[in-house]
Design goal:
By secondary structure, this protein is mainly alpha-helical. The protein has 16 helices and two strands. This is S15/NS1 RNA-binding domain-containing protein.
Length: about 350
């Protein structure tokens, strides 16, 4: 009987506790909207989402609508055409890239006059320098035999021929002699020697005859003067052959060309200007390139290294000039026959050329 009373009491207590739990949960659900309305908005609590996590539809409004098959194919074709265009431009750029040593690309048919041999042949520097073959009038063939060469530079310009005819002497002077030295050696000096020798002869004639004057008649004086002039003429011919540039070595011709470059680019006195230095460096680079292109000196690595160093020095000078005076920079490039792509950007001097065996 007692166990039945305890069981009924437990059931009654459990029922009452369950009714209280349901009542409390229902009251909590009823008060939940009030609690949510009292909370601040989430935008004030949470930081904004990064751009990468935004929806794709917000970045591309057409995405929500969807692309058709024709539109997708058109986009793919446009992308492929752009890639082919860039590849073609890169190929043309590589094919027309000028040589960093010469300043132009030999054999270029795409940029005639601006990036090929015509750029060098028509420049101011090329017109004032002279090669060894043009000076000597000889050329060495593949067997080592000397062959005569005739060119316009071998005969000299009209100005050089006119100066040689009016002042005397050879067509071109060696030992860095100028036109003032030419006039002194071949005009003033023979006249002074002729007068001195004639005066000395007349003095000896007067001393031998015992009279003070008039011992030599006019005919004798004229004959003696003609003999002295013939002797002075032979002396002038000998001196002319000795001072002729055709007797100079390769080093002498190099000095002659540098003097002409200083006269043209530095007004004869300014040897340290950028124009003069770049012109001399370009002249030296052309000589080194010509030397290293021959099979005999193909393996001269010391000269090839000097050529690379000189190429970078020239590029630095031109970069300095471009930074300070753009007009002088553009004018100098055309005067020395250099394409600007050869001295701007990365400069890579080519190595030893390969021999083509037939």
């Amino acid at each position: 009987m007692a166990s039945l009373l305890l069981a009924s009491t437990a059931r009654t207590a459990a029922a009452s506790s369950s009714r209280r739990l349901v009542a409390s949960s229902s009251s909590a659900l009823e008060s939940l909207p009030l609690l949510l309305s009292a909370l601040p908005p989430l935008s004030n609590i949470l930081p904004p989402l990064p751009s990468s996590s935004r929806s794709i539809s917000s970045r591309n409004p057409n995405f929500s609508k969807g692309l058709t098959k024709v539109q997708r194919k058109r986009g793919q074709m446009k992308k492929r055409l752009n890639l082919e265009k860039h590849a073609l431009l890169e190929r043309v750029r590589e094919e027309t890239k000028p040589d960093p040593v010469l300043g132009y690309r030999p054999g270029n048919t795409r940029e005639v006059g601006t990036n090929n041999e015509d750029l060098w042949e028509n420049c101011e520097l090329k017109k004032i320098i002279i090669s060894n073959q043009d000076v000597w009038g000889l050329r060495e063939d593949s067997r080592g035999n000397l062959q005569p060469v005739e060119s316009e530079l071998t005969k000299g310009t009209e100005e050089e021929r006119a100066v040689a005819a009016s002042q005397g002497g050879p067509l071109r002077l060696n030992f860095n002699l100028s036109d003032e030295d030419r006039k002194l050696l071949f005009q003033d000096l023979p006249d002074v020697n002729t007068k001195d020798r004639l005066t000395v002869s007349m003095a000896f004639s007067d001393a031998g005859s015992g009279t003070h004057a008039g011992s030599m008649v006019a005919d004798e004086i004229n004959q003696h003067l003609e003999g002295i002039e013939r002797q002075e003429g032979h002396s002038v011919d000998k001196l002319s052959r000795m001072l002729d540039l055709r007797n100079a070595s390769s080093k002498g011709i190099d000095v002659y060309n540098k003097r002409r470059i200083v006269e043209q680019f530095g007004q004869g006195i300014h040897t340290g200007t950028v124009e003069t230095q770049v012109a001399i460096m370009t002249y030296r680079l052309h000589r080194l390139h010509e030397l290293l292109s021959t099979p005999t000196f193909r393996k001269d690595e010391a000269s090839r290294r000097s050529m690379a160093i000189l190429t970078h020095k020239r590029a630095k000078l031109l970069k300095y000039l471009k930074k300070n005076d753009t007009d002088r920079y553009v004018s100098l490039l055309s005067r020395v026959g250099i394409n600007r792509r050869a001295v701007e950007g990365e400069i890579v001097v080519p190595g030893r050329p390969k021999l083509i065996t037939l």
